[in-house]
Amino acid sequence: MKQIICWLLALMLSQPLPAQRIQPAAERFSSYLHLLKGKRVAIFANQTSVISDRIHLVDTLSKQGIHIIKIFAPEHGFRGTADAGEKVDNSIDPATGIRVISLYGKNRKATAADLADVDILVFDIQDVGCRFYTFISSLEEFMESAIQARLPLVILDRPNPNGFYVDGPVLEKPFRSFVGMQPVPVVYGMTIGEYAKMLAGEKWLDSSLHGALATFSLTVIPCGNYTHKSKYVLPVKPSPNLPDMSAIYWYPSTCFFEGTALSEGRGTDHPFQVFGHPSLPKNLFAFTPVSRDGAKDPKLKNQLCYGWDISSDPQKALAAINNRLQLKYLLQAYQLFPQKDSFFLGKPGAPPSGYFFNKLAGNASLMDQVKNGASEATIRESWQPALNRFKAIRKKYLLYPDFE
Predict the structure, then answer these.
(1) Distance in angstroms (rounded) separating the CA atoms of residues 160 and 176
(2) How many helices (DSSP H) and strands (DSSP E) are in the chain?
(3) Number of domains in the chain
(4) I want to staple 184 with a disulfide (CB 3.0 to 4.6 A). Which of 62, 121, 148, 188 is the partner?
């Protein structure tokens, strides 16, 4: 195995990059290996941290003589097999023997003890460009740990598969949570490296750390041949319930169903492309969520549901989305749902911030608009002032040509 990895790495370094192939920063060894040599390295990584031919970056760096002393892992774990929201324990990675510290279990931040024997930190995680996908929240807390420990941080940037548009409600401060920590829209159109630069530049990190930002060493290694017009196809699935590009394209629009009584398709072949409920009209698409890897206990498990199946090939999904957050299925589902007072999950009398749907939306307005029968056009118009303010901020931190 060692000989195969070394041979493939040598081949990659010796071959010119095809003019149109998008190159994640992890593959651009000459841009960052010199920063790591001779250092005790801790890397934040998961199953998406791969280079060409799906070889894991941790394996490759180790073969290159980089001294990786520990791995930090986000939601779903280092190998990406845990359910959404499932707490993950620390472990030893059987493939490498390196200690894995979960930052989605007992702690969400690397502690001072975790970092005491570290010289430099590396972050290499594939994001999907959606605010409630928790990897950008993990990035933010990892940056804060780096600043507190006075450690340099190297971010190996990766393309954003939903980086070709910006849309959705902008998060309001009362609805801040791990599924939305900053005033950005649902689809923010930035790579993970650009987002990190914005966090630091706008001083959106913990206010107690602002004084240390001046000396914080943040290095973003950019991708090759990427622009915000690119349609990047992920080489591996980023999490158990985003199994293909169609699911990734639909996810920003259909994840709202997680905050409702409806199944969002976990426990089916097409999560986030199949959604419904037993009480919806029986002439709709029928499906039954079941326990499976990545969805051990899905919502409405073993119950016959009726709803929608919008699964298709990625090109049809792109055409249907048309560079916009799609609300039509959410609005239709609410209109057809017989028990309106139980459509949104939450305890009766709970404050607006107590509803998970509002944390996904980032405000209480969208829920009210749905309840009051507002049209999609009216809802979209209400987003524009905050979207325009965000777009002006976003422009300052872009590392790649924009889509507009």
Answers:
(1) 23
(2) 12, 14
(3) 2
(4) 188
Contact 136, 143 (CB under 8 A): no
pLDDT in tens, the chain (404 residues): 444 444 444 444 444 445 589 999 999 999 999 999 999 999 999 999 999 878 999 999 998 999 999 999 887 678 656 566 667 678 888 878 899 998 887 788 999 999 999 999 999 999 999 999 999 999 999 999 999 999 999 999 999 999 999 999 999 999 999 999 999 999 999 999 999 999 999 999 999 999 999 999 999 999 999 999 999 999 999 999 999 999 999 999 999 999 999 999 999 999 999 999 999 999 999 999 999 988 999 999 999 999 999 999 999 999 999 999 999 999 999 999 999 999 999 988 899 999 999 999 999 999 999 999 999 999 999 999 999 999 999 999 999 999 99
**Which candidate, 16, 86, 84, 5, places its Cα nearest to that of 51?**
5
Range of the domain at 210: 22-221
Is 158:128 a contact under the CB 8 Å cutoff?
Answer: no
- The DSSP code for 394 is H
CATH number of the CATH domain containing 39: 3.40.50.12170
Residues 6+ apart with CB under 8 A from 377: none
- Rounded distance between C-alpha atoms, residue 311 and residue 274, angstroms: 7
Question: CA-based Rg of the chain, rounded to a whole angstrom?
Answer: 21
Burial 151-182 (b: 16+ CB within 10 A, else e): bebbbbbbbbbbbbbbbbbbbbeebbbbbbbb
